[in-house]
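Morning run. Coffee first, then this:
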Amino acid sequence: MSKKQLTILIIVIVCVVVAGGMFWYVKQNKQKPVNPPVTENEKEQNNTSDSSSIASTTEEIATLTTEQVDTSNWETYRNEEYGFEVKYPEDYIIKKIEGGIYLKHPSVDLVPIHPPKGGAVSIALTKTKIEDEIKSIEKSDPPFTRVRSQKEYILDDVKGTEIVGTVAEGLDFYEIFIKYNNKEYLIDYGDIGLDYSKEILSTFKFIK
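And here it is:
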């Protein structure tokens, strides 16, 4: 092949590659949908619609979760002295602590190697005041361990206060302070197995 023929061949190849690239580019742009500009009113309507959809979906999931949980084979712990009763899954470990109990699923000790199949909840009488507990938390390891919120919490139709905090590892913890029949209670649970812990608390009842 002569030098002139080689040059012509290279030019032909370059032209084919360029033409192919242009064809692909045009085809890709034709496939992309062209969205018209969104007005401020449309943005607000979309945001409202998305929020409503999320709220609706969340309610549906919560309802399904509650209906699907079978507590028929759960054990019941009842203590007249402490003034409460609560149900818990039969595979939980129950341990007596000062003024109350500590409920824990064995899988909690295997986190993070294995996912939890339950949570851990402590329910006990306390003399600790919520103000002192908040001060203690905020002094323990600032700014990593801190109280993030404080709000009302209803337990068995009795009003209490829940504080939500975060520890250095990034996990949240929850503490409920509640008073009933001249007894003050502290209920403590955390992020690990949170759904299970909330389900246990839904069965909590004060002994009237």
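The longest strand covers residues 146-155. Good start to the day.
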